[in-house]
Protein: DUF3987 domain-containing protein
Amino acid sequence: MVHGTNEDFSELKKHVAALPDSKSYSITRSIPVSAGMVHFESLPTVISHYKMASLLNIDIWLPFKKFEPRSNAIKQFQKDMSPNWFYEAVMGCAADNKPIDYCWAGLVCLIGAMLAKKVKVTVDEGEKGLAPNLWANFVGEPGSGKTPVIDMLTRLAEPFTVDPKSSSDMASRSMIDSAISATKVSEVKKIIKNATENDKSINIDRVIKQVSRKFKVEETKIAEYIGKLVITTDTTAAGLNDLLEIDELSVMLLADELKTLLQVLSSKDNAKLRGQLLQAESSNSLMMVARANQASKTSHNATISVLAGIQPDALAPFLNAAMNGDSSNDGFLNRFLLTVKNVTEFTDSYTASEKFDKKAIKKFIRAVYRESFDFIDRIDGQYGLVGFSEEAKKLFKKWKTYNTEQIKNAPNSYLANQFSKYVGLVPRLSLIYQVMNKFSSSKKKIEEFQCIDLAALSFAIKSVEYLRSHAISIFSADENILHVESTAVLKRLIDTGYDKFTVSELSQRDWRFIKRDTDKALKVLQYLESFGLVRANTVGRRIEWEVNPLVQFCFN
Structure:
């Protein structure tokens, strides 16, 4: 049985028909079976049409495939993944030659960061709320558009950001205010005592005025920071301490080169930093901040969002280490739930950028910033907590059953871990989409809501299935790493003109990845063969590999 497209199958059959003994072969892509008519002793072997051509000694080279990591099931950004106005906003941002997939993931990350300190979501009563602070990672080759999208997002957020220095000052003032407040209690008691002894009545305004005059301290209006962002590139434990402990401030860490951050976190000296990031991503944990000669402080609402980009070949070693348990970064990489590749292309259905309202996203972000969400019941006076409607609960339960099957059938343990985190991702995305659904562009505000409805959950589920397809493409680690290794070997074959060799002979070359490793050399050749770039010929008693004479054009 042959695996391939209809075009592949037709191409192969054409060449098989030209063979002298063509009637001896039956090439098929499937075997129709009637109940009880056929019994298989073993399952049929399914091979590529390139391999079949080699086995049949067809001399003509079949057209080779584009040499890139396989992404057969990878999904493109679709209109039914989000409210219509947001779809058009994404397309409007992408109309200036920016990758659509990066724009979607980046905008969701930014919006989630701004909501994280205001409202959380829970599926069932009694459960802790989940904040929608999500981590986005753009995976792509150099020049794929990662940095332009990150720059665009920072410009969108600029009117609602706090300078990191001023936010540090805010943290210091907050600690000073806490110390002063303890003194104020005793001072107020004195004033009250004097007032009751002399006047038998208390003038509250006079008390406030006296206390203010005595300490010459103006109260810090921390509430004005709720919903604002501090965008930082500071990857030091001390630097993040000052930001994460401010319960009212949303933090977004930019890692334009995620490779650098991963290298920093690989060091044992930065175990504390890694712990801070992991705690702040989970969005419902307590984070203890300890300082020398000072009382430690517990942050009950520490959250952080991360926006990053990385090249596939830079990601491969970290992914390999995570898969093999050689690095503590396995848990860290799994937190980038909005990991996407640049695969969605503009088509005739949305060509003109004029069709899309580029200002809509600015209006929405401003509305999110201004909205206090007071119409939602607040927990401990800090943030609103919203649950699922009964219909949404039923659909979510059904989807969780499906997701459990996907976890069981995941290609590797890394993807199984990634899929398990989707159970928390769906509610967080649902909250973001619920807020989007309730956005009134004409009123420039968020309309009231009391629960996550079916429409918002449906958008979230479709988005997660889109993300699942990207994760499978990116984190099918064995093939991802094999592609990087095969690319290096293929380039050496092109540069040296080395041709017609056995696996053993190739492994004797002093080349990276395959040196003195016949198993790896064979694996690389078989991978290249699946693209039509090399083929195996039987010459006497030995199998000799030959390079496609047009191989130099495979990178064009």
